[in-house]
């Protein structure tokens, strides 16, 4: 199954200029693993050294923040989306 991934343009240098693309995976966890295998530079922007999602990053599976999910071994369905939001601050 394919999942559509969208990410902010601030991270496009980590994905060869792509801000929307598809990954092939059977589960959400597999899609996240595939994301890091395909685009290893994303790791430092999205996850801490201990493997936690960074505080300023939100990862949404369809309309649900993955932080609210008990298990990421969710079988993917046609039309599923993974959306990455990265908060930017400054003054």
UniProtKB/TrEMBL annotation:
Gene3D superfamilies found in the cross-reference section: 3.10.20.30
Matches recorded under InterPro entries: Beta-grasp_dom_sf, Mopterin_synth/thiamin_S_b, Sulfur_Carrier/Prot_Modifier, ThiS/MoaD-like
SUPFAM superfamilies: MoaD/ThiS
PANTHER family: SULFUR CARRIER PROTEIN CYSO, SULFUR CARRIER PROTEIN SLR0821-RELATED
Protein name in UniProt: MoaD/ThiS family protein
Species per Swiss-Prot/TrEMBL record: Paenibacillus silvestris
């Amino acid at each position: 199954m394919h999942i559509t991934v969208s990410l902010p343009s601030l991270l496009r240098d980590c994905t060869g200029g792509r801000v929307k693309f598809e990954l092939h995976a059977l589960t959400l966890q597999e899609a996240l693993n595939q994301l890091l295998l395909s685009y290893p530079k994303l790791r430092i922007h999205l996850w801490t050294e201990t493997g936690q999602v960074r505080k300023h990053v939100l990862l949404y599976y369809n309309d649900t923040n993955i932080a609210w999910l008990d298990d990421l071994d969710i079988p993917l369905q046609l039309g599923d989306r993974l959306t990455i939001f990265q908060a930017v601050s400054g003054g």
